[in-house]
Amino acid sequence: MSPGLEHRQRGFVERTLASLLETMEHTLLAERVAERTGMLQVRDARVKVIALLVLVIAVSVSHDLRVIAVTFALALTLGWASKIRLVELMKHAWWGTLVFSAAIVAPAIVMTPGRTILRLQFGTITEQGLRAAGYLLARVGTVITLCSVLVLTTSWARILRALRALRVPVVFVVILGMTYRYIFVLLQTAHDIFESRRSRRVGPSSASQNRWAAVAAAGVLMSKTLELSGEIYLAMQSRGFRGEVYLLDDPPMRGPDWLTLAGVAGVAVGIVWISQ
Amino acid sequence: MHIPDGYLSPSTCATLFGTSIPFWWVAMRRLKHRLMSRFVPLLSLFAAFSFVIMMFNLPLPGGTTGHAVGMGVATIVLGPSGSIIAISVALFIQAFFFGDGGITALGANCFNMAIVGSLVAWATYRLLSGCAPLVSPRRVIAAGLAGYTAINVAALCAAIEFGIQPLLFHDASGAPLYAPYPLRIAIPAMMIGHLTFAGLAEFIVSAGVVAYLQRNEPWLLKTTASDVDDEAPGTREQGTRVLWFALAALMILTPLGLLAVGHAWGEWSARDFADAAARSEIAAASGNVAPPNQAPRGMERLSAIWTAPFNGYAPPFLRSPGLGYAMSAMLGTGLVLLTFLLARLVVHRREPRSSGTFS
User: Are both B290 and B316 inside the same structural domain?
Assistant: First the structure.
């Protein structure tokens, strides 16, 4: 067996384990930050969800790079005031999406036709290409930062209840809540499957054996999923569930919440107005 | 394939979100009707499963690894309605909580992966698996191809959505406001990766999980194979009986073919070139282009090699053309059936006998 093949085999199980662990760590980080006492942590979740949507739509509509940049600065300030460290924001939000977007948009700088700014050996940098890349990266960066600030300062249960304020059907909210809860049960199960496989492996296996192991793990996970679904259904029935879903009402919004909402609405109107 | 925020214009996002709403509504109604209260935990758990399965690194030929979306598996086990809801929920959580896929692009992502992906996977699987038994290898291949087709059609939708952005949305200087690449770049860029690595990963997961389920829990495959009843062979016999009656009815109706006059275009014989009436018919059917004065030499030579015993569906020993037509139909059908029976006999003799069944 060649060393290269052995390396690839090690990578398959370890990389899957790393993905699963990373997701669990991501959630733990969000829970930890949501417990800090910062500016946004004390605000009503409904205000934060509505504010996020309003600002995201305003940024998407805006055609002015300066305005998008100011909104990005506002999102960073909100994060700082909510005691979110820049490193956490980078790890949580920027590393994946922003780096991916930068890689995607880089060729557009030379591929977009327009007014020449700089001639290079492999192409010509155009003003339009730079602007196109700027629009995309600024929007992606701003929206992902806003979204991360919301998620890191609000527990998932509160976000779900806030969705009811937006008239999202109650059944959908309940399904989302249950899905989120059981993602971690299944992540743990998948982690155990791969960990036990790693602990029992005594020698290298072929690529096709690895493929079969991966799909068998997926099959076992599906069987466990459906088994768990049946158990949960029985548990729900034993507690009186008959298909109707009820949620506790949220407490009424307070003065500072209304003020925050009004402020965000003002900013959003300003973004759209200046952009036009 | 998860489209982030900023790549699509607000109007594209709104259009795709609006397009997705009726699909979600119909899917929810169907599930509620079918599963009553059981559908809440089932969908939640399956959405969680779809989420987790996207994190599996799958070893692919060539030493690389890939991720599957799980559209094929979700559709085959839950049916298209269940898959639409389960994948949409997984995408919602990915967008809101993990920043994978945009919030404004949620409608587009759900449309591409949950709706188009599920429906394409369902149609492909149903078409290719036919009425094959639940444990048939044909279902494994059908599942793999369903997953492969679904992810590629979903990727094509995403590529088209990207590609129309610079055409429709640019600022006064001509700089694209959203995704910057036109269709001629966006489509190949998206499809190369999906036709190879991502498609292969989806193929392996879909086919592999179905093969696993066939061996361990074949009942899970019943949702998209409700017309297959492995436990009651009588049902299949009843189904073939209907086909036999239909075949007999068609044979009796074959003399209706005599009502059609003239020749089908291109089915002329060498003699027709010498017949004035046939020549004018050929010319009329060929845009008033006169046929050659003589039959082509090659046609003349080849047509003399074999003379069919029932030439023109008219056996020489029968005077009635109608009876001759019906007789030809019976003889032809009998020969086709005999060929298949002989082929089955040969194949069955070669195959080793299966000793067990899956349970």
Answer: no
Flag if A245 and B40 touch (Cβ within 8 Å).
yes
Phi, psi of A217 (to 5 degrees): -60, -40
Average pLDDT over every residue of B242-247: 67
User: Lowest-confidence range among A53-57, A269-273, B232-236, B307-311?
Assistant: B232-236
ipTM above 0.90, yes or no: no
Same domain, residue pair B166 and B77: yes
With a CB cutoff of 8 Å and minimum separation 6, the contacts of B110 are B20, B24, B87, B88, B91, B92
The reply to whether A71 touches chain B by the CB within 8 Å rule is: no
Residues B252 and B286 in one domain: no
Query: Does B1 reside within a domain?
Result: no
Does residue B5 lie in a domain region? no
pLDDT of residue A60: 84
Give the gap in angstroms from C-alpha B16 to the nearest C-alpha of chain A. 15
Do B223 and B142 share a structural domain?
yes
B321 and B273 part of one domain: no
Alpha helices in B112-255 (DSSP H): 117-129, 137-163, 165-168, 183-193, 199-216, 233-253
Are A226 and B42 within 8 A, CB to CB?
yes
* Partner-chain residue, chosen from B6, B65, B93, that has the shortest CB–CB distance to A143: B6
Considering only CB atoms, which chain A residues are within 8 Å of B83?
none
User: Between residues 187 and 216 of chain B, which touch chain A (CB distance below 8 Å)?
Assistant: 204-205, 207-209, 211-213, 216
Q: Can you give the pTM of this predicted structure?
A: 0.69
